[in-house]
Specification:
With 555 residues, this protein is α+β, with helices and mostly antiparallel strands. The chain has helices at 7-14, 75-84, 130-141, 159-163, 193-196, 207-212, 267-275, 294-300, 326-334, 338-346, 376-390, 408-425, 436-444, 463-466, 484-495, 499-516, and strands at 39-41, 47-49, 55-60, 89-92, 95-98, 101-106, 112-117, 174-178, 181-185, 229-235, 239-244, 258-263, 281-282, 304-316, 351-352, 399-405, 428-434, 450-456, 519-531, 535-536, 552-553. The strands form six sheets. Strands 13, 14, 15, 16, 17, 18 and 19 form a seven-stranded mixed sheet that branches. Strands 3-12-11-10 form a four-stranded mixed sheet, covered by helices on one side. A four-stranded antiparallel sheet has the order 6-7-9-8, with helices on one face.
């Protein structure tokens, strides 16, 4: 997702390693409580009885840009959606398990999945049916709806053709057998398809609500959802309140009654709130730890660092005269001292990214990278070539602007890189920051030169890091770059069933990215976080996911 995908990207930035593919995963604490008796276990293992409603206090770093499962592309929106909507499957400890689907069968040829839905309800009391899933998926694939994540549905037979305008909805491999049975036929065997059905774009949509109000997802009182929580309050740019849904099929195992989420842009303010006991957790995807607090938290022994399958990178607008120049892009990419950035700025055990797919992803563990970190000599050689091609005689004549969303952490990283480029290359580097939604619009409209983002894996496969660049038209590309050979390799990887051959194909694609550098990888994420000792079940997995359904408070 754009981190990065959003504020999370943004949060993740500081948090780092999983804001992209999924590497290892933390075990979630799935403690259960006897909600009917009000009995709970405290930190010493004894029991206490309480009838008081349980409230959890969290933060988002920005306003969620969209709470429509078919439109959301950032981490903040995804985090909210994952708690108010539920797909056929959900991820637990890195493994897909049944959610809205009670069971499923897979055909011998691995092409047909039959999902049997459990008896569940929407927040308004309507039954959740197979048609709700079929409608949502077709909605996301309809070109006019401009879903940036439509391509994640491409494993479904006919999906890419329909979305590109060359196919028909009637040819889609999505069949509603009856209200409780959904049959899905794939183009080719897709080993991670069950994981995909846990992703937000595969969530159902209440059809009557969508057809009655196209903007239903913009206000709390018009959102009809099927997850463990409902959104009962949304003060834009202020706060959100999630309330346990009594219509949820597994409501008796949801421990927290109310989740209050304040929107707080400043990491320093978030840290102050945590220290004051006003916030119970800080870390992706609920806020971000202030860089200034990292050393203190380490010394106190309260900082936790989880694996995080993601990459923090700087995208280049390849349609711009300056950053459209390959030699300039190579110079800027090589002239970043990643190791020093991590040691002096981010400080959360991140690893320098010298490629585009984290080493935590299956098949990429031995990837040592495509270039040297802090290769200033090589950077100057490429810069000289680029300046000549641009008709410039001196580095000081070259002006490059680095854009980022408003964030103390992103600003600190940008300043470090800006200073390095000025010192080592002698160019005129400037900084530009914007509020999150404005920033995303800049990227989408190619109204920038260099722009920061993060990418957190949507599933544990290299494809999730490479697929967005298969076309300049891909909603998550934001660079204007495309390469015919690269696109062909990615298509080949989809149809290759031999795991080793498929990995080699994707490594070839990654090598093309490294040669043309539409993106400068900077570091692989980790996810630093802090959590109050009375909160259990709030350990992020390798994708940064935390299911509030599994969280409990024992005071």
């Amino acid at each position: 997702m754009k981190l990065n995908k959003f504020l999370t990207l943004f949060m993740a930035l500081v948090l780092s390693v999983v804001l992209a593919a999924c590497g290892g995963d933390d075990s979630k604490d799935n403690e259960t409580s006897e909600g009917s008796t009000g009995t709970e276990t405290n930190n010493e293992g004894s029991t206490s009885t309480s009838s008081e409603p349980k409230e959890l206090n969290l933060v988002f770093m920005s306003e969620p840009p969209s709470l429509h499962p078919g439109l959301a592309s950032d981490t903040t929106s995804s985090t909210a959606i994952n708690n108010i909507f539920e797909g056929l499957m959900t991820m637990e400890n890195g493994v897909p398990v049944e959610a809205a689907a009670e069971s499923y069968e897979i055909s011998d040829d691995l092409l047909t999945y039959t999902f049997n839905l459990r008896d569940s309800k929407w927040s308004n009391g309507d039954p959740v049916t197979a048609n709700d899933f079929a409608f949502a998926w077709k909605w996301a694939l309809t070109p006019e709806n401009a879903s940036e994540y439509a391509s994640i549905l491409y494993p479904i037979k006919g999906a890419e053709a329909y979305h590109s305008g060359t196919g028909s909805a009637d040819d889609l491999g999505i069949k509603v057998v009856d209200d409780k049975t959904l049959e899905v036929t794939l183009e080719v065997p897709t080993p991670y398809f069950l994981e995909l059905t846990a992703f937000k774009t595969f969530s159902p949509i209440h059809q009557a609500t969508q057809e009655a109000n196209a903007n239903w997802y913009t206000e709390a009182d018009s959102i009809v959802s099927n997850g463990a929580y409902t959104l009962t309050e949304w003060v834009h740019n202020g706060n959100l309140v999630f309330t346990k849904s009594e219509n949820y099929w597994d409501a008796e195992n949801v421990k927290i009654d109310t989740v209050n989420v304040a929107i707080v842009e400043s990491e320093a303010s978030q840290m102050n709130m945590f220290d004051a006991g006003e916030v119970d957790f800080l870390g992706t995807s609920y806020g971000s730890i202030s860089l200034d607090a990292i050393d203190r938290l380490k010394s106190e022994g309260t900082l936790k660092v989880a694996e995080y399958s993601g990459v923090y990178w700087y995208k280049f607008n390849t349609t711009d005269e300056v950053t459209g120049n390959l030699n300039i892009r190579k110079a800027l990419t090589l002239a970043i001292d990643r190791a020093s950035l991590i040691t002096n700025i981010t400080k959360a055990e991140q690893q320098p990214a010298l490629g585009y797919v984290p080493n935590s992803v299956d098949g990429f563990g031995d990837d040592e990278g495509y270039f040297k970190d802090a290769d200033f000599e090589g950077a100057r050689e490429y810069l000289a070539k680029g300046l000549e091609e641009l008709g410039l005689s001196d580095p000081s004549e070259l002006e490059v602007t680095v854009s980022h969303n408003t964030s103390e952490a992103h600003a600190a990283i940008a300043q470090f890189i800006q200073q390095g480029w000025t010192k080592e290359l002698g160019i005129n580097a400037k900084l530009d920051n914007s509020e999150w939604q404005v920033y995303l619009d800049k990227l989408s409209n190619l109204d920038y030169q260099v722009g920061r983002l993060g990418w957190i894996a949507d599933f544990n496969d290299a494809y999730t890091f490479l697929e967005m660049y298969n076309s300049a038209k891909n909603g998550n590309n934001d660079t204007g770059w495309e390469n015919a050979e690269y696109t062909a390799l990615l298509k080949q990887s989809v149809t290759e069933t031999d795991p080793e051959k498929r990995t080699q194909i994707m490594l070839q694609a990654e090598a093309i990215m490294a040669e043309e550098v539409p993106v400068a990888p900077i570091y692989y994420y980790t996810n630093p976080y802090v959590v109050k000792d009375y909160v259990t079940g709030m350990e992020p997995d390798a994708l940064g996911n935390i299911s509030l359904k599994n969280v409990d408070i024992n005071k």
